[in-house]
Every structure is written in structure tokens, then in C-alpha cells.
């Protein structure tokens, strides 16, 4: 597995890369935003460990640009426990985040968890066999990984699509956050389970779903989320 480590703190980036290399990963380094985008485009990493405070282009914009050509896993690194940074980063396509200072073993565990997570919450083979599902104006096509609302295609991040496909596959089931994490991120994922709420909020926004009276993704009080009828 190839990992691109992006951080303008050269010593920290080098230490992380060396640790990952000793664990068998093929590691690459970038220290500026533009270099990170160029390296991701050229080298096609499986995982990008992306610091947000970069010269030349911040990590949010780097994440946004990488998402235009790559479905790699992106782990954001924030300099502080800043909820705004986390919300924005997840909204543009990051899969997970860690906060500085972090232990390299923690980061390694996060990467290995993502490594075991297939793209597509139901698994690629299962999604390829799933027929499109319709909920009023909403159409979810697992095989094509496309979503339409009233005939208009909606661009979702990979994680947003995986969550929606998971809910749509069993529309009568109310999923807990933990069940969504286990299905989409994998059972070995560690971190704040409220990351699900962040992705759900952005998913609803893109679908035009009013969180006060959602038609497509409903909140089940005390449990989690389920599909609505549209």
C-alpha cells in the first residue's frame, strides 16, 4: 500500500514516513499544497495523510482537488481540536482525522483500518449486484455509484455515497452510528462515532433534505438513522 504523507514540518513528516516504511508501506513525502496535489496525481497513493496547515495551498483545498481525480483514503491532520476544520475537511471528502499531537501508532492503526475497508459500504461485489432503489424523487444506483434527485445527478463524496447506499439497501432498518461505522468504515475503526453525524448533515444538504423534516434520511431518536419514503 502506498501512503503519501503531507506536512510542512519536515521532521514530523520524515518520522511518520520512516515509521510507516518500517511497517511495510511504500511512503512518499510532500511539504506544500501544490506538491501534494501533483504527487497524488502522479503517484496514485492509496492513502493520503494530509496536514491542513500547508504553504501554497491549504489542506482543505488539497483534499478538494485530490477528490476530483482520486478515490484514495484521506486522513486529515489538524493542529488543534478544531471542530470547524474537521467539519469542512469531512465535507470535501476526507475519510478520517487525527489531531496533533498524535501517536504514530494511532495513525498506523487508522491507516490499517482504512486498508481493511473496501470502497463501498456494502462491498464492491455486493453493490454491483444491487438494483437501483427509489425513494420518491431520490434514486440510488449502487452499481453505478450514482445518485439522482428529481432526475438531477448529485455529486457525493465516496463516504457520503457509502452511507446512503448502506441505508438504502435495508430501508426498513434503523441503523445505529456504530452499525454505520462497522459497515462503511469497518469494525476495527476507532474514533469519534459522531463523524457519522457530520457526514449525514452534508449528505442531507446535498440531497436538499430538510433536517427538521427529512424525506430521505430520517433520524430515529435514540437509535440513529434510516431511509425515509421520499
Automatic annotation (TrEMBL):
One of its GO terms (cellular component) is cytosol. GO terms for molecular function: phosphorelay response regulator activity; transcription cis-regulatory region binding. Residues 2-115 form the Response regulatory domain. Residues 130-229 bind DNA. Residues 130-229 form the OmpR/PhoB-type domain. One of its GO terms (biological process) is regulation of DNA-templated transcription. The keyword Hydrolase does not apply. It comes from Propioniciclava tarda. InterPro entries: CheY-like_superfamily, OmpR/PhoB-type_DNA-bd, Sig_transdc_resp-reg_C-effctor, Sig_transdc_resp-reg_receiver, WalR-like, WH-like_DNA-bd_sf. Signal peptide: none annotated. The modification 4-aspartylphosphate is found at residue 51. This is Response regulator transcription factor. Pfam families: Response_reg (PF00072), Trans_reg_C (PF00486). Keywords: DNA-binding, Phosphoprotein, Transcription, Transcription regulation, Two-component regulatory system.
Amino acid at each position: 500500500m502506498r501512503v503519501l504523507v503531507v506536512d510542512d514540518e519536515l521532521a514530523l513528516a520524515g518520522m511518520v514516513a520512516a515509521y510507516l516504511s518500517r511497517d511495510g508501506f511504500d511512503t512518499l513525502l510532500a511539504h506544500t499544497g501544490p506538491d501534494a496535489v501533483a504527487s497524488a496525481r502522479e503517484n496514485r497513493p492509496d492513502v493520503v495523510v494530509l496536514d491542513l496547515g500547508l504553504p501554497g495551498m491549504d489542506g482543505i483545498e488539497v483534499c478538494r482537488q485530490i477528490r476530483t481525480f482520486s478515490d484514495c483514503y484521506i486522513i486529515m491532520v489538524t493542529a488543534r481540536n478544531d471542530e470547524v476544520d474537521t467539519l469542512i475537511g469531512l465535507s470535501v471528502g476526507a475519510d478520517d482525522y487525527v489531531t496533533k499531537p498524535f501517536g504514530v501508532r494511532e495513525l498506523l492503526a487508522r491507516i490499517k483500518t482504512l486498508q481493511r475497508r473496501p470502497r463501498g459500504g456494502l462491498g464492491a461485489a455486493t453493490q454491483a449486484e444491487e438494483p437501483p432503489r427509489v425513494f420518491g424523487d431520490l434514486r440510488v444506483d449502487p452499481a453505478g455509484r450514482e445518485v439522482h434527485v428529481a432526475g438531477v445527478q448529485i455529486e457525493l463524496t465516496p463516504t457520503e455515497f457509502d452511507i446512503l447506499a448502506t441505508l438504502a439497501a435495508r430501508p426498513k432498518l434503523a441503523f445505529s452510528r456504530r452499525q454505520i461505522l462497522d459497515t462503511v468504515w469497518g469494525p476495527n475503526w476507532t474514533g469519534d462515532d459522531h463523524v457519522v453525524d457530520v457526514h449525514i448533515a452534508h449528505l442531507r444538504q446535498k440531497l436538499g433534505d430538510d433536517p427538521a423534516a427529512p424525506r430521505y434520511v430520517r433520524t430515529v431518536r435514540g437509535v440513529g438513522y434510516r431511509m425515509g419514503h421520499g
